[in-house]
Amino acid sequence: MSTPATGQELGAFLRAHRELLKPADVGLTATARRRTPGLRREEVASLSGVGLAWYTWLEQGRVTASRQVLEAVARALRLDAAGLRHAMRLAGYHEPATPDGAGAGRLAAAVQPVLDSWPASPAVLVDRHFDLLGWNAAWAALWGAPETVPADRRNLMWLMAADRRLRAVLHDWEPLAMNVFQHFRAQAGPALADPRTGEVYRHLDADAPELRHWWGCHSVAELTARTVTVEPAGVGPVRLTLSSFHPVDDPSALVLLFTPADAAGRERMADLTAHPLRAVDPAAGGRRAAG
């Protein structure tokens, strides 16, 4: 939760936005001349559904707001998405909840051109639950097309643990897979209690029971940059450097980018992406075969 210093910063942030608003901005009628700019505290309190004394203390940094109350105050102050994220951080909370389906669709549409700009580097966009929202042709050529995975299992953790195509291609897959799980626990926050998170864990339990001790572990870690080796059949080994970053439109989402570490790797990945069907062995469950 927020410290006294961040509580005062949050109060100053809310007060500044209150002073920027006019009564007409929130559907109120201005009557008597106002001695101070913007809305009165009692107006924001009323619009937020909280008491005047409590809202006054919030601006003074003397109380801590719950996530729900802070969201109500943010709506009353007409904060945009960036303002809400900043208020949540100052209050000590994780990012706002993952967008609904429409919001996730807008995010995927905005990020897809970025993913496609890396033709030889596998890249994927995941949401707070690590569900796949978008990927590029290089990702599909290397790991297999996510469209072939049932939608309820189209999740990065599930792919790492249970998708034999990925495990067959990725050398020494366990350290990376464990780091993905640790990062999820470190950043998931309220998502750990979401129904979708429980659903993903049930699928993992059913489809990869030998790794059951992983989801019972409580260790956390950041997803660190590293170099991994992949070897699609018929292509030869390729060293890829993993990096990750958060889209500015939704910092709870994550882009993972695997960049070839040398010229030979770039050439092999470019060839694999250009001819993704040339080396598919249906008998191997979608794994690529020499050809």
UniProtKB/TrEMBL annotation:
Domain (HTH cro/C1-type) ranges: 13-84
InterPro entries assigned to the protein according to its UniProt record, in alphabetical order: Cro/C1-type_HTH, Lambda_DNA-bd_dom_sf, MLTR_LBD
Matching Pfam families: HTH_31, MLTR_LBD
Domain of life assignment: Bacteria
Record protein name field: Helix-turn-helix domain-containing protein
